[in-house]
Design brief:
267 residues; alpha/beta; 2 domains; seven-stranded mixed beta sheet; 55% helix; 16% strand
C-alpha cells in the first residue's frame, strides 16, 4: 500500500485498535473482558484482521478493475471537505447520526458519481443521500435523473422538505410501494439503504434486479453490529446474482463504529 492511501490508513487504525486491546489484557488482566473470555476475544480480533485485509485488498482491486476510479482516494477526500458542513448540520438538526449514512459513505457516493458519471440513479432509502445525489445532478453538465424512494412516507416528506430548503429538486421522491408499482427500468448506480434490517433483507433481491449490466450498487451497513444478518446475506446475494463484490471498508468505516459499505458491479 502506498504511503498515505485510505487503505493503508485504515489498516494502521485497525492494528492500533488491536494493540490497545492486547495492552489492556496484559496491564489489567483481571478487569479485561478479553482476558475473561479469550476465545471470543480472539475470534473478534481475527475477524477484524480479516475484514481489514479484505478492505485494503478490495480497494486495490477496485482501482485495477475500473481505471475511472484510479483517483478515488483524492475524489473522496475532496467530497469530504465539500460535504462536511452540511452533513454535520443534517445529523444535528434533521436525523440521528446512526440513522443517516455516514459522512464517509456520502463522500464515496459523490466520488463514484463524479468518476463513473451515472445518469440514472436510484436512491433507495431517502435522507442525506438524496441531498448528495441531487447536488451531483445540479453540478453535472448533462441531464441526471435521480429517483429517491423510502418505506416510510413521513420520513420521505421530511426528505422533500430538506431538499427544497437546500434549493434542490424534490421531484421523483416516492414510497417504495409506489415505486414497485411502476416500471422504471434499470439504473446505472443504486444506493440501497432502505429501512432497518428486516426491510433491507426483504428488498435486496428486488433492488439488485434494478441495476443494469455494468452498473453498480452501494450497500450500506455491512458490518453493522445491529444488523448482523445483513452483511453475510448481502454477500451471498451479490454472488448469486452475478455481481462482483468489493469491500469499501477502507473508505467507509466510521471511527468508533464498525459499519461500512460494499460495492457490487453487475456482470
Amino acid at each position: 500500500m502506498k504511503r498515505g492511501t485510505a487503505a493503508r490508513r485504515a489498516v494502521l487504525r485497525d492494528l492500533e485498535h488491536i494493540g490497545l486491546r492486547l495492552r489492556e489484557v496484559f496491564r489489567h488482566p483481571s478487569q479485561s473482558p478479553a482476558a475473561r473470555h479469550p476465545v471470543h476475544a480472539a475470534h473478534r480480533l481475527l475477524g477484524l484482521l480479516k475484514a481489514s485485509a479484505e478492505g485494503a485488498r478490495d480497494t486495490r482491486r477496485l482501482k485495477r478493475d475500473f481505471p475511472a476510479l484510479a483517483d478515488l482516494d483524492g475524489s473522496v477526500g475532496k467530497a469530504v471537505r465539500e460535504l462536511e458542513a452540511t452533513y454535520q448540520e443534517y445529523v444535528t438538526m434533521i436525523s440521528r447520526w446512526d440513522w443517516a449514512i455516514s459522512l464517509e459513505l456520502a463522500a464515496v457516493l459523490m466520488a463514484c458519481c463524479r468518476l463513473l458519471r451515472p445518469t440514472r440513479i436510484l436512491d433507495a432509502g431517502s435522507g442525506y443521500s438524496s441531498y448528495v445525489l441531487r447536488r451531483y445532478g445540479a453540478e453535472a453538465l448533462r441531464p441526471i435523473h435521480v429517483t429517491s424512494v423510502d418505506d416510510d412516507p413521513e420520513w420521505l416528506e421530511e426528505t422533500r422538505g430538506y431538499l427544497m430548503r437546500q434549493g434542490l429538486s424534490a421531484n421523483d421522491t416516492l414510497t417504495w410501494d409506489e415505486f414497485k408499482g411502476q416500471d422504471r427500468g434499470e439504473f446505472d448506480l443504486v444506493l440501497h439503504d432502505l429501512g432497518h434490517e428486516n426491510e433491507r433483507l426483504r428488498t435486496l433481491s428486488d433492488v439488485l434486479t434494478l441495476v443494469r449490466p455494468g452498473g453498480a450498487v452501494l450497500l450500506d451497513d455491512v458490518g453493522n453490529p445491529h444488523m448482523e444478518r445483513y452483511g453475510p446475506y448481502a454477500r451471498r446475494m451479490l454472488s448469486a446474482r452475478r455481481f462482483r463484490a468489493y469491500s469499501l471498508r477502507a473508505l467507509t468505516r466510521e471511527r468508533g463504529y464498525s459499519r461500512y459499505a460494499m460495492l457490487g458491479v453487475r456482470l
